DNA sequence: AAATATATTGAACAGCCATTCAAAATTATA
DNA sequence: TATAATTTTGAATGGCTGTTCAATATATTT
């Protein structure tokens, strides 16, 4: 129980930060605004996060954690089965409910920070490498792929997924969106059966 | 000649903005700082760009223009030839000198704005669609691809390219970088000969 | 040369920014 | 219950933000 107030307050602050960043953008979210949102003085935020840089780096931890959590159910589900069909996972990757859980705006705003902050860059890299490794493990369970280089394959799949979401986020038209998703999904399937 | 001072000043301001954004980040670049950098009062900047939003939207025009310019030599060169080898173009896409001409940090910072600004989103989309259309035209000149859906193919290629650069920007290690580039390039080649 | 339009200056603005600090309230420890 | 540690408050800071405005300088048109 010791110092659990501290823990929950920190969590509360980060989540408030995330909420406001999602609504008004990362660059428009100040410590004072977070304070007002949570009905606490800004000095309390500074008490737990001595500088804004530190606050931001914790926001990034939170975001990357959330990002990973989206994969988690699929990961869990598929770990239990001995041999799983990667297609189930691919479908999840491209399913709509994914994006509903996660705000790409904040994600890319934070991503833009990797170019001037080595630590943030490393954190992003670590996350992406972990996802690739998981997919590799998954592919290794598929007998059809047993003579394939699954590490390379996992990488190629994620490159398509990441490029897909990058481009998809520019689209306004629902119909076009769905149509492109199908296309990219097919592209990943092709990689699997190559 | 009429009102050419206005034109060059505007250009100067935008380029100064870009330079500072590249150095210190978009969110850390203020009108006052641009003024100091160019040795002009901030009010002169406001004279040409009435609000910061307008200034930013012009920066984005500039960036997307630059982005397109990277492709231009290749586009020009290949347009002249009647039937061109797409591989030459792909190689250019993955060549190192590309990134030297362009700052991904500013590009992705601006990209993050598409999520809360429909106009910016549209501009980004337009650029990416133009590049896809160009590549399609290029692929259409290749006889080996004459029974392929080149529009789809161009899209698939760019998805790999964009996903590749997204992931590559997280890497610190030069050697790993080069190795991944080869891998992604191979992935695009596979699409061509599929 | 006068009148008009454009370009540039510099000072000033309120409002927000991250951050500091000392004091108070609350909780845990002895 | 006294002491110590943690949590919370509220007021204050200087510096930076985008923006306004009236005045001046320079260039263009009449």
TrEMBL record, chains A, B:
Key words, A-Z: DNA-binding, Repressor, Transcription, Transcription regulation
GO molecular function: DNA binding
DNA-binding region boundaries: 30-49
Chain ranges passing through the membrane: none
Top-rank taxon, per record: Bacteria
Boundaries of every HTH tetR-type domain copy: 7-67
The UniProt record lists the keyword DNA-binding: yes
InterPro entries documented for this protein: Homeodomain-like_sf, HTH-type_Tx_Regulator, HTH_TetR, IcaR_C, Tet_transcr_reg_TetR-rel_C_sf
Subunit annotation: Homodimer.
Job of this protein: Represses transcription of the icaADBC operon necessary for biofilm production.
Protein name: Biofilm operon icaADBC HTH-type negative transcriptional regulator IcaR
Organism: Echinicola pacifica
